[in-house]
Amino acid sequence: MSIACAIGAAVYPGQTLLLAQVMDIFTSSNLTKGGDFVSLMYFVIGLGSLIVFFVMGWISNIIAQTLSHNVRVGLFRSMLRQDLRFFDRPENTIGALVSLIDSQSQAVLELMGFNVALAFQCIINIIASSILALAYAWKLGLVGVFAGMPPLLLAGFARIRLETRLNAGIDERFSASAAIASESVSAIRTVSSLAIEKSILTKYTVELDRAVWGSTKPLFHMMIWFSFTQSVEFFILALGFWFGSKLVSQGEITFPQFIISFLGVFFSGQAAGTIFSFSSSFTKANSAANYYFWLTSLQPIIRDTDDNRVKGPANGGSSIDFQNVQFSYPLAPEKRVIKGLSLTIERGQFVAFVGASGCGKSTMVSLLERFYDPTSGTIIIDGSAALTDISPRLYRNRVALVQQEPTLFPETIRENVAAGLDTGPGEQAHVKDDALEAACRAANAWDFVSSLPEGLNTLCGQGGSQLSGGQRQRIAIARALIRDPSIILLDEATSALDTESERVVQKALMDAVASRERITIAVAHRLSTIRDADKICVFSQGRIVEAGTHDELVSQNGIYKQMCDAQSLDRAT
């Protein structure tokens, strides 16, 4: 591509020499022969330009598409490997991150698609045309190149610098409106059911207006330099024509020399102006590159390292021991959510966490999934290693999580259930039907799956929209059970279901618990779902204030008894 750019840049000095030749032809006696020669030269230049610009465009776009692809993959890969601290940041909403993947890769594509080839060609043109101007009329060339070009370059670089700052601010300001749009569209059923389309649109418009008004001042400053880069070329030409005419009148240079030198300066200034017309592409690509290198170099706190990469749970997760664990969320370090908690759970036990909202139950699940590490204290796995010392990937392969609102991928039931296995890309579709059927039967899901026309090949829809709440939950349980986990975490797994769906899902969960081959930990509001637990831990303000079986806690006549009475009253009502 460099050769093509160099040949393309040679077109402009070639035109300069041809135009000087034209002046001689029109003042000579052999006009026809000279005209034929110039016409032939222009035809050759046109044919060469056709080939050269095709090669430039083809190669540069292949490079651009490859780079854009690599940027998208690199950004997405880097986002996937981040821990939850990254996604908890207010600037890293789903909408903002999705928008960044698209906008940053598009910025690279825009610059590298053809603009960078044209910019490289313009640089060669500036050098070649300036040398030509100096070679044919050095005095005029000095004035045009060294008096005119520095202000043009200064203005151009100032414009690029200001535009870089402007784009950085714009990305930050518009991320808020992008987040509103993304989250509103993803929750369109809720928006429609509440009839809040107008208020959402107003909120979106307010964020857009704030972003636009915030850009006004830096845009004004940038336009000063932009207007200068667009006009300084003509000031250079005015200076060159004035000084060149004096040199011709004084006999220091001939008219053809004046034309060649003047046009050399003209094409140099024009090329410089063209380069700075790409300033928007340069600044966007610079911002994209900075973000790409920042994100790809950002190391999550919870990750596989050389020390723990092959170190998993010694016994697959046969015991969990909380030792004086304290925890605060990274965005609110002053507020302790878990306060000095100690608890031991052995294989085969069914342990339940209950308590008021915000007391730390779900935070315990996050710690057990190792979405976060404790602020202080230690979680010991298998009585031998701290959770922070083993590979999070190998540990999570032994853990299954079923949440209140299960997330199903917009694929088939087969692929959603098989996603619970540690398989490679695209291998979910090839998992044996026997394993899938066994998992679905264990989750009490096989009856409804087998009754569907497409069976396991039924598409779940976006977020599982083609299935009922109970069906989605049972598919999520099947996905958890197919990996044969040592630890099952149930975070309000039945609280969003109707009575019949809850009964079916609860039976599936109890069947999973009955094997006594794993640790089962459940967070529950409905106490009826956990009354058979081996140990019920009552949480209050980040501490376990009561612990025991259902009968033991009821006999204590404490918080748990009050919760049981309250739910009985609710059912009576």
From TrEMBL:
UniProt-recorded Gene Ontology molecular function terms: ABC-type transporter activity; ATP binding; ATP hydrolysis activity
Cellular compartments per GO CC: membrane
Residues annotated as domain ABC transmembrane type-1: 1-284
Main location as per UniProt: membrane
Domain of life from the UniProt record: Eukaryota
Domain ABC transporter: 320-566
Pfam family, one: ABC_tran
InterPro entries: AAA+_ATPase (IPR003593), ABC1_TM_dom (IPR011527), ABC_transporter-like_ATP-bd (IPR003439), ABC_transporter-like_CS (IPR017871), Type_1_exporter (IPR039421)
UniProt topology in membrane: Multi-pass membrane protein
PROSITE patterns: ABC_TM1F, ABC_TRANSPORTER_1, ABC_TRANSPORTER_2
Cellular localization per UniProt: Membrane
Keyword flag Secreted: no
Claim: ATP-binding is one of the keywords in the record: yes
Residues annotated as transmembrane: 39-59, 114-136, 223-243, 255-278
Keyword terms: ATP-binding, Membrane, Nucleotide-binding, Transmembrane, Transmembrane helix
Similarity remark: Belongs to the ABC transporter superfamily. ABCB family. Multidrug resistance exporter (TC 3.A.1.201) subfamily.
PANTHER family, per database record: ABC MULTIDRUG TRANSPORTER ATRC, ATP-BINDING CASSETTE SUB-FAMILY B
Protein name from the UniProt record: Leptomycin B resistance protein pmd1
